[in-house]
Amino acid sequence: MRMRRTSRLFAPAIAALAALSLTACEDGTGTKDEGASAPASSTATTTPDKPTTGATTPAGDTPAGQATATPRQDDAREDNAPKTSAPAPETRVLCNGSNTKVTAQPVPRPLNHMLITVTNTGSKTCDLTYYPVLRFDEMQWVPQAAKETQPQAVTTLAPGESGYAGVLLAAADGSGDGGTTAKKLTVAFQGSTPNSDGGASATPSLPAEGVYYDSSLTVTYWQRSSEDALAW
Q: Which of 214, 216, 184, 215 is CA-nearest to residue 201?
């Protein structure tokens, strides 16, 4: 009676162990195979109708929003244009007694006037600045220039060209004083600033009988034409 009761108590446990043993035998590991676990994430696949990242753009097609690099036309024109060097700046000097020929000649009209002519004998363009500074014989004063004869620009002489100045020797109405006859004339040139030294002076010849002048002695600024020089 005791053995039969014990058998009934262990029967369920034995059945459970048997089921477990059978399961272990099915996969040979002693552990039931529950099947492969699902991956945490899947790799994205490329669909046929969408281009993959990094796909090569066919030749001749430009992606939207991306400019195509082309050579600059301005650069091409600059490269093709002939390169020319800038002309050298013109060298100009002051006109004075060293690079000009100076003459002084009394004229019949206007009355009591004389014309001074300066011709550029040098190889460079020269400037006749302001007006001539005249000195007859050993006179101790300097004739003034008629302000209204000042030109708009400096009188410039290319090689071979001439400039002019008119000289009023004496008042036509006899109002001048200290009149005398001069046998010698010195023409001085001004520099780039008024009354500055412009270089060598000139001593043009006067008529043998000399030139009469008085306190009315006045000169014009250098002019481009003899007509302008004698118009005053």
A: 184
